């Protein structure tokens, strides 16, 4: 409580202590700043006029500058609330005019503290959930700092966000960060892969369907956009969506209503939509593979994730983060990188981006017998060496020479087969998975494991 009149301080202190609050009262701005600096404060009540030492606006600014700012209620003279309204624009919770009713003040204090409690609860929730992002957004480079600032700005709204970037840069994690940083954090986050399902199933999963609307529809189903409630739906690999489904998605985003398959009724939905792609949608529009009107609808706000090769200064931070997590999991707290190991990592291009770095750190920590991870724990390609290969004898049996490693040899063969399947399938991953006899989920895992991006082969239009 800040007021330069002793009688008012004593009156309000008695009133609020009777309500069960712990109250500290001071006469001036300097004393208020001292209390704020030394004690946790939930609510500040300050008179606007505090004599020659400052005003309630100075108290407000001091309170708002704290790391966890308290709510601020200002007391102003009857008929002159203009300055108090201006203070609210600077972050004050509310104001009350003299003379005021005791019950009015009690209610205002209760509501202000309730808001403070909700804000603290939300901060606690985010602090508990954000580490689950896996650290892929760790980084002190200017581009990552700029990205985090954009995440903070867009999180409170409901505008559609388009997240772009190469495979392995952490697009889903950015979408989760947007979700967890806003008021939707306690609501569901539902990622959905647009490339994993055929056209009919894709629409059913997104929009829902009525019983009997198609073969196998034995019961009514609510789609993701409705079942997410007021949460977030992430449309991953939106560039893979069939053109016919793109038309329907455009209408859904424009009208904010969903029409389940087989239904004549449209149902409003309240979920936020975040789209993600590793394709250049402008090029896809020119090639006729993506609708221009849907592109502009999704492209309200764009967040572009830089590839790891464009922010090498973040590599030591990321590698250290992953290693600290592994050290805890493996029960080896002394695990650390040799300086020359980090230097080699910083020089490497990382075609698979952050996901490849994470796998590399896991490989080094798992296979190393020493707590000091030297250059030998890195793959030969990172060290600038050629991979030793197996030769074949005249009888067809492999001849194993010095330096041969079966795990690396199998990995190399797997990588070559993945590339061959992608080339044969003209870049369509669902077809490539079928050629290799793999499920789509398994195929995506192997692509990520080897750090293969979709840009390796330019895809051709679907038939």
Automatic annotation (TrEMBL):
What is one Pfam family matched by this protein?
Response_reg
| Disordered as annotated region, ranges | 370-403
Q: Which GO terms describe its biological process?
A: phosphorelay signal transduction system; regulation of DNA-templated transcription
Q: Which CDD domains match?
A: AAA (cd00009)
Q: Which residues form the Sigma-54 factor interaction domain?
A: 137-366
The domain of life for this entry's organism is Bacteria
Q: Which InterPro entries match?
A: AAA+_ATPase, AAA_lid_NorR, CheY-like_superfamily, Homeodomain-like_sf, HTH_Fis, P-loop_NTPase, Sig_transdc_resp-reg_receiver, Sigma_54_int
Q: Which spans are transmembrane here?
A: none
Per the record, the coiled-coil ranges are none
Would the keyword Phosphoprotein turn up in this protein's UniProt record? yes
Name the PANTHER family for this protein. ALGINATE BIOSYNTHESIS TRANSCRIPTIONAL REGULATORY PROTEIN ALGB, TRANSCRIPTIONAL REGULATORY PROTEIN
Q: Please report the name of this protein according to its UniProt entry.
A: Sigma-54-dependent Fis family transcriptional regulator
Q: Which organism is it from?
A: Corallococcus sicarius
**Lineage of origin:** Bacteria, Pseudomonadati, Myxococcota, Myxococcia, Myxococcales
